[in-house]
Specification:
CATH superfamily: DsrEFH-like
Low-confidence stretches: none
CATH class: Alpha Beta
Number of helices: 4
Mean pLDDT: 94
CATH architecture: 3-Layer(aba) Sandwich
Number of strands: 5
Protein name: MSMEG_0572 family nitrogen starvation response protein
Largest sheet: 5 strands, parallel
CATH topology: Hypothetical Protein Ychn, Chain: A
Distance between the termini: 43 Å
Organism: Pseudonocardia alaniniphila
Strand content: 15-25%
Radius of gyration: 19 Å
Strand order of the largest sheet: 4-3-2-1-5
Length: 161
């Protein structure tokens, strides 16, 4: 039988070096933009939430940041989520997507949601998205990408099914 070597870790112990950082903490230059495109199913993994946290961090670095939700990503902007009533958190973390999007919006970020995905795929009305989320024409998803290219913006894209 293998012998366990070392001390057991306790709450509050650091088990890796959290202080070493290899890269400069880059902040946006005046006028720099960022676009994050998400085509992901909420609650089917951590990708959507991690990308929203990353999008919020990009915004906090000073980038003029736009989050583009399309395909199943539009479900992240649902204003009708909750149980047993709209807005009620059934368990800790249940409303994490809504809460993070609202934080991003309050901090000046922009959120766009594809109308095709909203209506044709999920039966969502424009009144069913979180206040501050801007529904867009499905052709605007590509034109937003092309706009980002012309602007020389930072672009992150995530696809999950």
């Amino acid at each position: 039988m293998a012998q366990i070597v070392g001390q057991r870790a306790h709450q509050g112990d650091a088990i890796v070096d959290y202080d070493e950082k290899l890269f400069e903490d880059i902040q946006a230059n005046e006028g720099e933009k960022a676009y994050v495109f998400m085509h992901t199913v909420p609650y089917e993994g951590s990708v959507g939430l991690v990308n929203m946290l990353t999008t919020t961090r990009i915004n906090r670095k000073g980038f003029d940041t736009t989050l583009v939700l399309y395909g199943p990503g539009v479900l992240m902007a649902s204003a009708t989520r909750g149980f047993p009533t709209v807005g009620a958190e059934a368990f800790p973390g249940h409303m994490a997507y809504n809460n993070q999007l609202q934080t991003f919006l309050k901090e000046g970020g922009k959120v766009l949601a594809c109308r095709f995905a909203m209506a044709a795929l999920y039966g969502m009305r424009e009144t069913d998205v979180i206040e501050g989320v801007q529904p867009i024409h499905p052709l605007d998803v590509l034109d937003c990408q092309l706009t980002a290219r012309r602007e020389g913006a930072l672009v992150l894209q995530t696809w999950t099914l």
